[in-house]
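ok so I'm stuck.
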Amino acid sequence: MRIYKTRSIAADACKNGRICMNGVQLKPSRTFKVGDTFTVRKGPITYTYKVLQLTENRLGAKLVPEYLRDCTTPEQLELLELARLAGNGGRDRGMGRPTKKDRRDIEVFMSDNYLDDIDDWNDEMMD
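replied:
not stuck anymore, here's the structure
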């Protein structure tokens, strides 16, 4: 149902205990019935899905909502957003790895002395 890109990746997820139903880990050969609810753990997020219909064939992406409903809780979706923002790291997409100069600037910015220098500068401006 297009939760994973390939069947082999889905089978590996089952074997590693990332797919559960009612707290029980599922095997790759497990069959589903209409109305079953299962959870899929991908990284820090636990997605919850409910089976609406069954099919024998692979589906197009546009047809998936007719067969599967995403019941993931808002808390899990918030974790997904936080993970996405944290993973960005403040660099624009396509900028590549930081250069040595970028790394040095980051280290200076993250050091305690940098914040002290800003406080000193603010104090001088207030005088």
